[in-house]
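sorry for the late reply, my laptop died twice this morning and i had to redo everyting from scratch. anyway the thing you sent over, i finally got around to it. pasting the sequence first so we're on the same page, its 318 residues, then the predicted structure underneath. double check i copied it right bc i was rushing
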Amino acid sequence: MHVNLAFEPKLIEITISNFKAFYDFKIEGLTQINLISGKNNAGKTTFLESCYINLVSNDIEHYISHFIKLRNLEFSEFRNSNNLDKISINSNLNKTDVKVDNDSIIIKVNGISKTYPRYEMPKLMANGTVDKSNINFIPAFPINDDSLSFLFSKIQIARKKDLLNKSLAENFDENIVEFDIILGTPKLFVLNRGETWVPLSEFGEGIKRFITIICAIWASQGGACFIDEIEDGIHYLHYKNLWKIIFNTAHKANCQIFASTHSKEMIESYYKEAKSLDMKDISFITLVRDKENNIKAITYDFDWFSHEMSQNHEVRGW
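ok and here's the structure:
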């Protein structure tokens, strides 16, 4: 089966300075679908966070709120271990700088600067509104029902609920007829369970993760979706079909994908499904540390990635 997934990526390159584990980091060659790997503590999550923050930074207050709330951390914990005050995350789309001092936080986005006294930050976070943008971040841990409800509303608006239901029946249980959120509770209508609605909580985390990813891609229509530790909760036998659905859904939703993994099986499934679909607008990124313990990126385009995988070379940065 040949699928034409030509895509002009929104984010092509990014430089990160003094943000968490990154001191002086740069990556180029980002594509429509980007899979990031590396050892534990190699910076995979930080890389996803950096790209996410850069893309949402056009709204300065939204940027600040997410900068803090994403991991429930203080600003000081976002600095590099060198304790440098100025954090910079610059891409081909946005230029963002954050400077922290004892009394205030100065945010500069695309030349527009704004100073926030530290005492205003709790109020700013408390008044945060639901993110209405098409940039979404799916963390490694399970999302709550309110977040899933928001993502599901986007797939309903796009009128793609039938595609989700079909995917659930084909990949998990042919008796699954429909997914819906009823009175705030995610439920599945299942034929072999008395032909009734069954709470999603009675099923494994894998199916919730699967639903979350597909809904998040449609919620990111025309934008970007970040998925941290994509394999979490999903059995390896489902990896192949998961990538097939991601490739096709990303194409239909015109969505750029960034996902992290430490699973060799997930990487192999990514390669095999991309090759099967003739999906060449992909990249595989390995994060490694050099002799000075700085994080560097090795970016494989489709041809290089195919060569390494066909030769059974290790590409995870181990």
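The first strand starts at residue 14 and ends at 19.
thats about all i looked at so far, will dig more tmrw
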